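Hey all, sorry for the wall of text incoming. These are the three entities for the joint prediction.
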Amino acid sequence: MATKVRETPMLDELTKGPWPSFVREIKKSAEDGKEAANDLLGVLERSYHEKIGHWKHGGIVGVMGYGGGVIGRYNDLPEEFPHVAHFHTLRVNQPSGWFYTSDILRKICDIWDKHGSGITNFHGSTGDMVLLGCRTEALEPVFAELTELGFDLGGSGSDMRTPSCCCGKARCEWACYDTMNACYDITMHFQDELHRPAFPYKYKFKFAGCGNDCVASIARSDCAVIGTWKDDIQIDQAAVAEYAKGGGIDIQKHVVERCPAGCMSFDGSKLEINNDDCMKCMHCINALPKALAPGKERGATILIGAKAPIIGGALLSSVFVPFLEMEPPYEDLKELTEAIWDLWGEHGKNRERVGEFIQRIGLGNFLEQIGLEPTPEMVVHPRTNPYIFFELDEEE
Amino acid sequence: MSASVEDVANAMYEMVKEYHGKKNLKALDLTKAMIQKFGEDQVDKKLCKQAIRQLIDSGKCTYSYVGGSYIVLPPES
Amino acid sequence: MAERKTDIGPPHYEQFLPPVIKKNYGKWKYHEIVRPGVLMHVAESGDKLFSVRAATPRLASTKTLRMFADIAEEYCGGHLRWTSRNNVEFLTDNESNVEPLVERLNKEGYPVGGTGPGITNIVHTQGWVHCHSAASDASGVVKSVMDEMFPYYNGEKKLPAKLRIAFACCLNMCGAVHCSDIAILGVHRKPPDVKHDIMKAQCEIPSTVAACPTGAIRPATVDGKQSVEVIEEQCMFCANCFSVCPAMPLNRPDTDGISIWVGGKVSQARSEPKFSKLAVPYIPNEPPRWPTVVNTVKKIVETYAANARPWERMGEWIDRIGWPRFFKLTGLPFTKYHIDDFTHAGETFQRSLHFKRA
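and here's what came out:
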């Protein structure tokens, strides 16, 4: 392992400063004798000089039987950088909430040190553990050893992408349902849809325990499951008084006046909430965590359709089910999901996300087809345009 | 249902071969074509799903990705 | 040979949870930030869990992961987790381990921070490290920006509220950055350079034509080869055609670069979730340290820090003061590129007199 680590004057500029350096990470692997890491340094240094990437478009690579989980990647300078001629990525389905033990982490490292570049992403944007860079012939052995260890691949392509969730009840007092369990259950239930792409395009699930949405579900998932409650915010007036006395926060100014619903009042010691008007935004609970808590009748709002700009413009998810109890085995969520997939799968265009599909056929029609009743919670306001596609019954 | 998974998988394989180099087919294109070919009383989506799985697991076809996932003949090499 | 296992799914999370979490699962009462980067969660039982949060560059070598494993074993019974924003967290119920953990992580170069009203780690994409469609590098920009923003990470400086930065190296936005307080987005600015030689072999012409959201691509015969042509004035450089057809590359060293977007959020707190809006349409790529991007982000953050009220996120602050004042205070020029001209453009025109003095 006497390979000399490449000289990278430009990249070395990125080893300076207080923030941990990705260049340092690649160098660690190169110093460890990983030829792929060393060639990655070379090709990246070249990109920094030329201001352009050197990776080619995909290709047909994967593990036997699966259509997802491996991103094929080839370099366009294979003669100069032979050890990154193939530089495929494996997406490995992370455990719910990204919890690990030192033992399992070392075993994953053992597999990747043996077969790959020694470089990883903890984690990829969708949530997977990403093993970055190996040759085609390494894919099956890595997969075999991962499954032996109890791990499986995540999604890619036109499939259900690896669902992800916040740490929910494992650590957070605001979790309105068990996000880690729901995420695990849905992932296991839809294994076939995760590994064998059969949709018009990708479909993402994200499970957030409350409206703070630490996993950005409303912006990033076709199906966002966001924790909420039906009854009243729980108030501990003694703790409110403590906050008022402590002086750390001006309750009138920073809680009451910041309430978007204008549903709170404070007389200097007692906090009152008109819960009929509450929008469950979480601000007051965030501000006074010891005094306020979500109500006791907890569940989730189901929102559908978020996506990034490609193709028809970015969308946030919109309300489908204002309140759903989220208890295992999550039958209602599974039924809703299957109904959505059935309709979108049948009529969606190639590369059309479900949010775009809904815009194309109309939310009203979509609801009718999947058997959901329209409710006022689904819209900001009723339509303002009078071009209504009336459908008359026969007898009319 | 009286068509077998095997029959449907074979018919799918023929279709992938026929379209090879002309058009990439998605799982759903194959499913729709098989329901059309065999008739709704003979095959459904579930059976097609099993047939696709057999087709891929047998190595006769593989998944590809070009901005979307397709079912294609394996690369020649 | 062992039977090939498939469809086993991820391992069940429960086996990785520390005992204090298993015991108090779903029974947490409240939490506090006891010092920058350290959370204390208190359970109904009175048990306490300390989470020590440290920065990572997301890209991690196995050597680093093994070092994290060693640290977790030394102080946390082997328990650790990652956050949704690429921070690593060491979990212990032993308060006396907090100080040595913080010291050790800082010493190893993975500084502790990322909690409360400040800037936490940047969610980002692959860039030149691994991607075929990147208009910029990701990790290099992230590193450069976070070096500059570091005092807002480690708690040295505070902001009125949380500030979330995200980076995506092209419009595909693998990180879906479009709802961030500050989004840094790689952009192409020239139409695809059609490779007529490989078009027929590598692409389906009808689906390449259909991929264009503005209908700018049409079939054409070029030098006797079946291919496509691009109506250049209709191209807005989304690269969707390149996603479905490798013969349509848009990457160009001279014209690719970075745009900056502000005021988005995903949380429901106070105001509704919102998209980020364009602040700077284009900054050239300046590797290795992207000084113009860094300085622009810094200017925006400092203007926000000096003017926003407590709890006010970037977008809420701008909603209060209005966009004319945002551009005036930051000194960023407002150009025709700031005005939308795609599908929902009309919704963004000012159709009232309800705008504030700059």
